[in-house]
Amino acid sequence: MQCPLIYNNKTIGAEINSVNAREIYKIINSEQEFANWIKNRISHYNFIENQDYIIELVYTKGRPRKEYYVTLDMAKELCMIENNEKGRQARRYFIECEKRLKNLEAEQMQKLAFHQSLGYKSQLKQQKEKYENEIKALKYDLEHKKELSFKRKLSEKELLELRKILAKDYDILCIKEWEMSLFAEKIGKNSVFEAVLNKLEKELNYWKNYDEFEEKWKKILRS
């Protein structure tokens, strides 16, 4: 038996592997003409175009010829319908082709998964190196910032700006040690918790609106 070609460049529904029905026709030795044979099979067994088969026009010197490309499932069914030895041989051939194609697809999927895993490992390695470099850079910056902080203290002007920024943007009250002692002394031992909170809120509000308070204070001094 001359084995028909399996085509993998035709898309029929969800199937990409197909067979030219004319080659099946030659194998089974049908007494009908090809055009009648394929039309009768399609009509009688309810095969669906673009799902079980496609039609392509082949242009030669004469009239265009219709070529029917069928899925492997339809090919097996066409062979089984004939109910003769040639048909059974062709059907067994298509079953074997399916097995080989499935094994080939599984092998290709394994290779693809292997290459993807290699790529994933490489990507993880690159990310790890990136994060390690970032950590090294952060450590370097922190060490140098510590060195800078030991070299000099903030000036009064810088400290003033820092207190305003912390109060305005972060609701953080920055108090010097001597200010804290004075603050505690003014509140007194017998002050209730609510009074402490009120005092802290007033102090925070002062630093939030430092520039406004200072301007008012200057106006009072000028008058």
- Beta-sheet strand percentage? 5-15%
Rg over CA atoms: 44 Å
* Largest β-sheet summary: 3 strands, antiparallel
Helix content: 55-70%
| pLDDT averaged residue by residue | 74
SSE sequence, one letter per element: EHHEEHHHHHH
Question: Can you tell me the number of structural domains?
Answer: 2
- Would you tell me the structural class of the helices and strands? mainly alpha
Structural notes for this entry:
This is Phage antirepressor Ant. Residues 19-84 form the AntA/AntB antirepressor domain. The chain has 223 residues and is mainly alpha-helical. It has two domains: 18-107, no CATH class; 156-222, no CATH class. It is 68% helix and 7% strand. The chain contains eight helices and three strands. The chain has helices at 21-28, 34-44, 72-82, 85-151, 156-170, 177-187, 193-208, 210-222; strands spanning 18-20, 53-58, 65-71. The protein has a three-stranded antiparallel beta sheet. Strand 2 (53-58) and strand 3 (65-71) form a beta hairpin. Helix 3 packs antiparallel against helix 4 and helix 5 (156-170) packs across helix 7 (193-208). The longest helix has 67 residues, at 85-151. The termini are far apart. The model has no long low-confidence stretch (mean pLDDT 74).
